[in-house]
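Data card: per-record layout.
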Amino acid sequence: MAKSVPDHIVIGAGFTGLVHAFLSLEKGESVLVLEKKDRAGGLIRSVPTEYGIVETAANGILNCWELETLSSRLGLDLLFPDADAKKRYIFSDKKFKRLPLSVFEIIRFIFSALTVPSKPIPGESIYKWGKRVVGESFLSKVVEPALGGIYAGDLDAMSAEFVLGKFLAEDVPLWKNFRSYANSRKGKPKLHPGRKGTVSFRGGLGSILGALEARVSSQGKIKYKQEIISLKDIRKAYPNARITLATNLSFALKILKAEFKELKGYQGMLETLPIVSVTRFGKDSILSGKKGFGVLFPKDHKSFSSELGIRTRGILFNDFIFSGRTSDGIHSETYIMGGAGDREIASKAEEEIISIVEEDRKKLLPSGEIPLNHYVTVWKDALPVYGPQLFAFNRDLDRVLPPDIKVEGNFRSGIGLKSILERAFEQYGPKTS
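The structure for this 433-residue chain is written out next.
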């Protein structure tokens, strides 16, 4: 039973907050979670429809020993992708290609990887780093769609030191930095090769959120519809509790700058990007007989235009990735749009967004069939801009925050659910008996 006076206050009941609350409970602490909405989960929801499951945010998590451990403790079985769905494509020259590079471009990249110092220079953008280290062709055809698909950002505005720094810590060529990074992780438990890659759960990612919420509610306490005004109020109500702030960037800055004057200067400097996802159900696939995980569409780093005028950043092939995601004979494709260069799409009506998706799809498959249904999700503050300002903000957080206040989220030292899990497990350490 939860203590009346908690040891640990967690603000936010999204994935980050629930993971921290769960691990804190596992360490024997009493926990209170405060959530401003009337439900837990944050961006992540798995919505069942008559055609199949819709993921409102991520469709899976990169597997790691931390996820294996967490799933086991929650009594959940991981769902692994179908072997045929591991192929990832990049759209180039009107085709879905596994590697959109010529032989000469591949040789150029290999030469650079073997010879050019790859550690990011302070203040260097991803675009400038890419031109210097891997060459313009590899940058535009591989790096841009890959990082654009993950961060939805502008390579000119993204900090290479922030995004790549932990992988490229030494002033040596790429291959040596990758070897050093791999060596630094040798002490961590290893996964069986067949268990690597993106995984999910039978009922979608919502399954792990539901399991976390149930466990935290039963062993700790979650209060919904809580309006958090300031850290000072929480400290006054719970003077001996430590606090973990697990919210989005905008709310975190709002709360923190009122308490720490060193952070006030970041108001108006830290931008966020909108993301729009549309899950489309139909009886045909744009892969036309092939199978795969997804396809990315390279964008020009200045105009953000792409080949054929495709507005979509990437498409996930949900029913190919995980079995049981749709009804028999139905295909599910999730179109990801928005981010840098296309912020306005988040303000459009749902019907207009669907029309844009269908226009893009017609360019890829002119003879495509009529869709059965669409499910639109709009997140206006989904991802932060991973630029030098956010990098500086993170360094200042580490410098000014007292030991009893932690800040976690996708704006910290690594994007993605896997990074959030790794940082949380590192903080709480092994489970106590």
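Known properties of this structure: The longest strand covers residues 373-384. Residues 230 and 236 are 10 Å apart (CA to CA).

See the next section for split statistics.
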